[in-house]
Amino acid sequence: MKPATIVIVDFGAQYVQLIARRVRENHVFSVIVSPSATPDEIRSHNPVGLIFSGGPASVYGQDTPRCSAELVRMGLPVLGICYGMQLACELMGSEVRGADASEFGRTELQVVEDAGLLAHVPKQTAVWMSHGDIVTKLPSDFVALAQTKNCPVAAVRHKREPVYGVQFHPEVTHTPCGHQIIRNFLYDICGCQGDWQVGNVLQDSLKAIKEQVGESDRVICGLSGGVDSSVTAALIHKAIGDRLTCIFVDNGVMRNGEVDLVEGTFRQHFNVDLRVVDARERFLTRLKGVTEPQQKRIIIGHEFIDVFKEEARSIKNARFLAQGTLYPDVIESGHSSVGHTSNIKIHHNVGGLPAELGFDLIEPLRNLFKDEVRRVGEHLGLPEEIVWRHPFPGPGLAVRIMGEVTEDRLSILRDADDIIIEEIRSAGWYNKIAQALGVLVPVSTVGVMGDERSFAGQHVVAVRLVESADFMTASWAHIDHEILGKISTRIMNEVKGVNRVVYDISTKPPATIEWQ
Fold first, then answer.
1. Which residues are catalytic?
2. Which residues face 30 on adjacent strands?
3. Torsion-angle region of residue 82: left (phi > 0), alpha (psi -120 to 50) or beta?
4. Which CATH class, in words, describes the domain spanning 5-189?
5. What percent of the chain has a predicted confidence (pLDDT) above 90?
6. Domain 400-503 adopts which CATH fold?
7. What is the pLDDT of residue 352?
8. What is the largest CA-CA distance in the chain?
């Protein structure tokens, strides 16, 4: 029997999967569907409620994603978020127009009715807004629940139907009361029981892998040593056993000791066929002279697949390629249920794949966030040092070097990266933050050497330490200044060619965690 489910209708929101994650955090199962889903398709999921996501369109625009008007008349509780609220209200007779003043970022909310959807929410609170349209006229069947300075209808409910809406985004951490609002909707309005656990993801993934692979085909899994590929490999191995072959491609843009770490860890931990391919010269030759970050990703993605194809020729019945793609990779590459999200960057294992792959893809983590992947890894019994390892981009150090990738620049960044990780580990900060990295900026800055002005330093190293639960949003880590000072001193003293270290205090959004 299918679990009680919240069905999320995706209108192209950048954070649609974040909505799904917030639902799952409350131990309620969720699925994402296209606006074209019919009422019967919705019912097939055993729904107890609907959430209409936000989106970049206007409800009165052309080629606007819309759903069937029947969805708000099914008797199921509906929560519309931003565009989703505007659409739900418009489908029930409200008027939506462009606002005189758009609202973007943190905004003060005045709660008018602190019950039901807004129960236990302070009368005045901060919320995260991102809209240019507003509901300008409500029929008598609606009640406004909250307002802001520029938005008289910032939250709403229907008097008879279980239809609710919020103009702000409760799914993001920048809305402090957002978790409470989502919980109110799930438990008080939809009547959810909270009986779904992350272990269900594990069982569903194992079943799906077995069904996709069948009884005789083999799977190739690209191991990088990071948590995503490690959990993917463990899942595949648990599902099909010795029909898994893991391949590690040394592309020349890895950190120091990466090959030794992967071989030492996975040959001991997994009883699988692990093959290490030395393709350093091949990748660096293709990257020579390339400075544009998207092009780097595309080149690395194509070479990655080509290497797999060549290695796969020696693997009998190899039909499937398993990848540790996560949802932030997918959404930042411009993919969604309706294809309306903006492309932020191409991920080598998503948008960078060539059209003619030659394998069928298996991506068991595609709809999960990093924290959920780690919980799956713990359920699989993976060691802590693998499960809680910081993320490392698929294109490696190539996208942490501004400009051309050269052996000299790679050596400088590897040494700086070692110092950053060593110092935060020794200070007990490694497990307190989500990701630590260094970025090499090939810019010559003036310094002082031997009491004289010097331009001997040809590079700047930017240190980036962030805190994040889901990697869709992130804040810079307020780490002890003494630790930053030690990192800076060591890099400038020990890494030749660097005479300046800076600390990146950008948040995501508007920045991304990686620089490229």
1. 82, 169, 171
2. 6
3. left
4. alpha beta
5. 60
6. GMP Synthetase; Chain A, domain 3 (3.30.300)
7. 40
8. 79
